[in-house]
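Problem 12. The chain below contains 296 residues. Write out its predicted structure in token notation.
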Amino acid sequence: SLSSPNATGPATVQNVKARKHPISFLQARFTLNNPVFPAIGQVSRIRGTIPAIVTDTMQLGRSDACEFCYISTNSTPEWRNPGCRIRSMIALAMLLDAVAGESRLARLGAPHPIVLIGNFIGFLERRLNTGANRRLKGVAALCLALLPGLLIAVPITLWQHGWVLEILIGAVLIAQRSLVDHVKAVADGLTTSLAEGRRQVSMIVGRDPGSLDAPGVSRAAIESAAENFSDGVSAPIFWFAVAGLPGIVVYKIVNTADSMIGHRSERYLEFGWASARLDDILNFVPSRLTGALFCL
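Solution.
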């Protein structure tokens, strides 16, 4: 609900007026009377012409007026502060991923960005992981893998209308819906048979589930969900919040490189060193936040 800037009681639509800055904007303020639930994604049309997107997250335990963003007459948001902008994009990206998911987005025909990243990393590994100085070559390969992503992400961030692409790319790189679907498939498989549960869990774990009983299959699915929640959900969102689209792109490239070449095998021990160490650094805070979240 919208209210005037001076409203202190229950929120009512009183006055929304445009001002020049340097073009006409709508200034929206509203009073939050619910101390628990955030107001996210309220979309309305004012005077039937100018779409206003009111998106932000309230501070828990407060019920005072929270000021949001300006909306220009050409439908291009001019965010009052970066925090409003990034929180809005994260909320919309998560909502889009929850509604559409990877399966529906894949129907558009374009390959998944992670597949393209993986193919490029594999190409670099085959070309560079030979001879001497493999650790240095691994550093070079990681830099080369990061370069295309940054060349795409940074201009999008700087573009006036790039926020739309940031939301779409963020939705593709956040894997909350995919994780839920895979774990749910294990639960559904176990209701059918133990063999089907094992088959479904084999798609999300690295070990052979052939010797697992039903509780073992369930534990494997839960463990995989906890591990992949950090890599696929909390860490991407964390770096999206910290550094915008470049942050989530860099994280996903490094995380993909670590999963491919960051192993302690004879072949990858030196070449994958840089990817493994940088992935550890980027996951240090998100992994601990994930652990705390799972303990709640």
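Discussion. The first helix runs from residue 82 to 106. Students who got a different answer should revisit the alignment rule from Section 12.3.
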